[in-house]
Amino acid sequence: MIPRWAAVQAALMLPALVWLYGWRTIDTVEWRTITAAPFSVTLDPGQQFLYGSPFIFLVGSYYQRQGLDFVAAFIVVHGLGLACFGYALFRCLTLLCSTSGRAAGVIVLAGSPLLFVVLTWVGKSDTYLLAFYLLLVTTRSRLTMAILSVLMIACHRELALAMLTAHVLLRGSVAPIAIGAAIGIAGTLAYTRVLLTSVPASRLDFLMAHAREVVRGVIAHPAIHVAATLGPFWIYLCRPAAFTVARVAVLGMAAVLACFAYDFTRVFIIAATPLLLVLTEDVVAELRECGGVRLFGRPVGLGALSLLAVLQLQVMGAKVLWVRGFEWTLAR
Amino acid sequence: MSRWLADHLSWFVCAWLALWAPPLLFTMGVDFGLITEAASGFPVFTDVTVITSAIQLTLMAASIRGLASRQPRAWRLLVGALAAWGAHTVWLMQVRLRLDGVRTLAAPETLLSLGGMTVAAVVLISVRGHFRERRSLDARGHEDPRVAPGSPAHVP
């Protein structure tokens, strides 16, 4: 049985979390550079991997050609991304948890760093990537799935591929997703290899340049890197019923990607979003049946679960971020 | 295919609005003096293209709610939006004809507008049946009224 006050609690919690986590913009200089000339490679080699994720830059460039300056275009593109993410999450949770369980779904999902990540990386295409994925979960149409897969790949090729693979492992629908992913990859390759003035450095080049630093950082602080991946959401995964081969495979894939990107919270949480949704669905179903979730042998109610939302932290390279802008640097 | 188009028409309209509304709002912000950095010096809100675009986008925005539940009124609003788009294009074409002559009829912007309107018209004609169909289904009571097409609980 889900408490009636869950909706009120979720409605109060979300603005409180937004206030606690705050928001940060990133890649604003790169945004200005790419949107001014989206078909010319003008960035430093260290940042050229951004050309592999052209969706927001092409949309931003369109707005600038229509008369908006680059600041207005940035606000419009990322504001629409947040709105799109909010709507897609609402729609997805309505479908997975039903109307009565939607608020509980929000509270459970707030135990993961997803919201923290969405607010901290304004400037990346994460909101669109997540929104297209959440919409993909809600549709049964194969054509829509394929189109949404193409859009996801246009947002971020590597992360989208990881999410789609995880989706196939957990929910199936191989054919439309494979077709969409293939078209999307062909499109992004055509953009980087044919339409651009020169071939930009890829994410693999970025990895090769930072590999030693990545390994050293992870080895020096393994516990904090693991804790920062799913945050308090780990407790839902640590239940015996939650462990399956497919879910472990998704976790492993997300961990490998996080190592490659040297970004243990954002990349991990986005790659593991299909798993987050499956677990949220499970937890809400258990809440509905038993009135609580059995954690470490004891039932825990929704009120106590909501406290997990304030225990988030993020590892961003060598930095650890916490609420209200608190951050510190990991010692080598 | 027409069923798929009808199911996703509200998505298309939202995407269209997302692409067109911000530039129009920016232009109107300049016209009304709300955005001063880009002041053009032109008279306020007398440009026919801005007015027709504003009408078009308003009609499209008004149709979204009805599209979700397949109301015939929403389809008619979209036809109205298409008519406003047509008026916008005709006005632009006559301005260009007067300024640059007949060769502007083959300009990429004109061809894009005409192509876009043709596609929109074909889509609207092909989905028309689905916006009538719902009324007959309602009369027979065969459709579940609790899960309306396009609502968050509806799965296209």
Based on the model shown, name its key terms.
heterodimer; A: 332 residues; three-stranded antiparallel sheet; two-stranded antiparallel sheet; 16 helices; 67% helix; globular; B: 156 residues; mainly alpha
Describe the structure concisely.
The complex is a heterodimer of chains A (332) and B (156). Chain A has 332 residues and is mainly alpha-helical.
Radius of gyration of chain A: 20 Å
Query: Structural class of the secondary elements of chain A?
Result: mainly alpha
User: Biggest interface, which chains?
Assistant: A-B, 22 and 15 residues
Considering DSSP H and I runs of 4 or more, what fraction of the residues of chain A is helical? 55-70%
- Count of extended strands of chain B: 0
Average pLDDT, all residues of chain A: 87
Q: Figure out the total of helices of chain A.
A: 16
* SSE pattern of chain A, N- to C-terminal: HHHHHHHHHHHHHHHEEHEEE
Query: What's the rounded overall pLDDT mean of chain B?
Result: 81
Q: What is the helical fraction of chain B, as a range of percent?
A: over 70%
Amino-to-carboxy terminus distance of chain B = 12 Å
Let me know the largest β-sheet of chain A. 3 strands, antiparallel
Sheet with the most strands: spatial strand order of chain A: 3-4-5
Low-confidence runs of chain A? none
